[in-house]
Amino acid sequence: MSERLTKSATRNIFYGGSAFFIIVFLALTIHSHLYITGTSTKAETLTESVARGKHVWEKNSCINCHSLLGEGAYFAPELGNLWQRWGGDEDPEAAREILKAWMESQPSGIPGRRQMPNFNLTDQELSDLADFLEWTSTIDTQGWPPNDAG
Fold first, then answer.
1. Separation of first and last alpha carbons in the chain
2. Mean pLDDT of all residues in the chain?
3. Do 50 and 30 belong to one domain?
């Protein structure tokens, strides 16, 4: 028996290995998709106001400064856990009022602090944005962000 690898054996190993890893890749992709759509997000809790809040988020390019669940810029705080930080789990109405007051008070004018623009959002847009941030806080992020400060 020959002690070296023949061309046909090399080709078979290449095709066999490629097929194996393509199958593994597809299985992991399907598993990830099923986990995201079935476990981590609660699609049944999506409402029209959550969708409108996402539109407010996108229209005002909030992601250009803030990150949401680790995606976006790191110029301003992470907002994926904003609802918990502002006490929305215990008192949702107070968290909504804090969000509304915060957005209306911008720019704060504090010297040496980065300034967030005032987007002049309507009450409906603020309510929708609050619904979006509340819904975002219910996503199973598996421990992200790593600290409470965002």
1. 64
2. 89
3. no
